[in-house]
Amino acid sequence: MNLKEIKDIFKFLKDTDIVEFELEKKDGKVRFKRGNIQQASVDIIQTGLPSPVEGIERKVEKEDNLKTITSPMVGTFYRAPSPETDPFTEVGDIINKGQVLCIIEAMKLMNEIESECNGKIVSIVVDNGQPVEYGEPLFLIKPVKGK
Length: 147
Hints:
Radius of gyration: 17 Å
Mean pLDDT: 78
Order of helices and strands: HEEEHEEEEEEEE
Distance between the termini: 42 Å
CATH superfamily of the largest domain: RNA polymerase II/Efflux pump adaptor protein, barrel-sandwich hybrid domain
Number of strands: 11
Strand content: 35-45%
Structural class: alpha+beta
Largest sheet: 4 strands, antiparallel
CATH class of the largest domain: Mainly Beta
CATH architecture of the largest domain: Beta Barrel
Helix content: 10-25%
Strand order of the largest sheet: 4-11-9-6
Number of domains: 2
């Protein structure tokens, strides 16, 4: 089961009244259980396969020169300051240390997430409007020597 499949299931379920959902396939199992915020949980049980995040981390390990920008908090990931404006960045963009990459909304506060280095955006790991967890990878950046 890959990250896209899990995200698609989540998108489908979030607009329904379904409280608990479990799907088991030969390559893994996923379970969503909804309650209040303290009780909500998502369990991903892979049988012999790495979790989607572990796969990203393994790719980074193989390419030592990539820097992972992770979420400093739990919230909702936004690529642009508003729905009517262009995203802060796109894959392939050259960015500078301190440049705003995205916004994470947490408790009705919009928190700008800045780049920790100069570099080129190799991958945007999270889809716009998706919930993120603390420490979840957001961007993969190939660092370059800069100003």
